[in-house]
Amino acid sequence: QVQLVESGGGLVQAGGSLRLSCAASGITFRFNSMGWYRQAPGKQRELVATITAGGSTNYADSVKDRFTISRDNAKNTVFLQMNSLRPEDTAVYFCHGQLIVINTRDYWGQGTQVTVSS
């Protein structure tokens, strides 16, 4: 059974930093794409950043130049370094992994809370 487990969330003051980690287990294949999404109260889940196995990245405009996504392919682990955090970054952050083997499968973590105080 594939599991994605996030860690690193918490409470931080505006302008501070946090580093999220997501480790996959129960899978022998490398995820084609891994990423982070977030969902704030009363809002839809939105993309934060993604990274392919080859290292190509994509960021939401709202986090460009503040967040950095990286991954360790050998460990099927993805990281999100978040700097210059703002209160509007407050949300539950979800790890995502996409595997393409004949068909496409999406896997999600349970989420980790990030709260930025003003």
User: What's the overall geometry?
Assistant: globular
Sheet of most strands:
7 strands, mixed
Strand content: over 45%
This entry's quaternary arrangement is single chain
State the total count of DSSP E strands: 11
Q: How much helix is in the residues?
A: under 10%
Low-confidence stretches: none
Backbone structural class: mainly beta
Tally of separate helices? 0
Separation, N- and C-terminal Cα atoms? 40 Å
Order of helices and strands: EEEEEEEEEEE
Which radius of gyration do the C-alpha atoms yield?
14 Å
Mean pLDDT across residues: 96
Features:
118 residues; mainly beta; 7-stranded mixed sheet; 4-stranded antiparallel sheet
Quickly describe the structure.
The chain is mainly beta and 118 residues long. It contains no helices and 11 strands.
Helix-strand blueprint:
Layout: E1 3-7, E2 10-13, E3 18-25, E4 33-39, E5 46-52, E6 57-59, E7 67-72, E8 77-82, E9 91-101, E10 103-108, E11 112-117
Parallel strand pairs: 2-11
Antiparallel strand pairs: 1-3, 3-8, 4-5, 4-9, 5-6, 7-8, 9-10, 9-11
Written overview of the protein:
This protein is an all-beta fold. The protein contains no helices and 11 strands. It has strands spanning 3-7, 10-13, 18-25, 33-39, 46-52, 57-59, 67-72, 77-82, 91-101, 103-108, 112-117. The strands form 2 sheets. Strands 2, 4, 5, 6, 9, 10 and 11 form a 7-stranded mixed β-sheet that branches. A 4-stranded antiparallel β-sheet has the order 1-3-8-7, with no helix packed on it. It is globular. The N and C termini lie far apart (40 Å). The model has no long low-confidence stretch (mean pLDDT 96).
